[in-house]
Automatic annotation (TrEMBL):
Transfers an acetyl group from acetyl-CoA to L-homoserine, forming acetyl-L-homoserine. One of its GO terms (biological process) is L-methionine biosynthetic process from homoserine via O-succinyl-L-homoserine and cystathionine. It comes from Anaerotalea alkaliphila. It is found in: Cytoplasm. Substrate binds at K163, S192, R249. Pathway: Amino-acid biosynthesis; L-methionine biosynthesis via de novo pathway; O-acetyl-L-homoserine from L-homoserine: step 1/1. It is an enzyme of class 2 (transferase). It comes from the Bacteria. Its main location: cytoplasm. HAMAP family: MetA_acyltransf (MF_00295). This is Homoserine O-acetyltransferase.
Amino acid sequence: MPIKIDRNLPAKQILEQENIFVMDEDRAVSQDIRPLKIAILNLMPLKQQTETQLLRMLSNTPLQVEVTLLTPKSYKAKNTPEEHMSSFYTTFDSVKDHKYDGFIITGAPVENMAFEDVIYWKELTEIMDWTRKHVTSTFHICWGAQAGLYHHYGIRKVPLDRKMFGVFKHHVVVEHHNLLRGFDHEFMAPHSRHTTVLAEDIIAHPELELLSVSPEAGVYIAMSKDGKQVFVTGHSEYDPLTLYQEYMRDKEKGLPIDIPKNYFPQNDPSLTPESTWKSHAHLLYANWLNYYVYQVTPYLIDTVGDD
């Protein structure tokens, strides 16, 4: 799929080296089709890394996608150059009068805080409320999934005794579900989090459906029954080395951190890990874009949310 992004975005060169088709404005306007408009609210600290990972995931269909990168106005990024933020990001105020086919809310390193204590929580709740009428379907990742489940459905997060950290085996709960189309019954996916949500809370809610769980990592994928809200508690978008980078970061800071499970060959951090979740990750995003965005979004984007 051609991803339409700013020609100067650093991710563009990386994706082109991977033979992923990206285009800039000049090429996009020559195609007589309406691109899907996807906004990404990037709450991760290493924003350039997350941009590249998510754009890679959005590349695996024949659809043209136009991406808008958003950042909270109530929080200033500390780990990304200000020049990058001012060049490629905008805030909710500048887009709140627009409509979007899809919206992605990333994870954030604030899991151990109460939701209400997060500096941008009020702004985030305003954005999440806005997505109900301005977005066809919203995809929530990790802490973003916990925040969405809490705000929209009152599902509380639960602290873990130890960080859920590694690559874990999952299984499909609902056979033949469109979001899981093409999945093996068992598949791998990474997790990196200190809190969780409970399967029984998802199952008990009449508007939610539990789609995938892990015997060790717990709830993985849940979804609103109308398809407008998708919740993924892990990080299927991660690169092969992302967990390694997080592990080394915490070790260097002297933080208590276990070796990520099921990740390093022979459980040896000196050996280079390989991705065991890439095919599942691409399927997950392709299915979301196809069945819950493209197939249901109106051709006239200004009519999103009018039903």
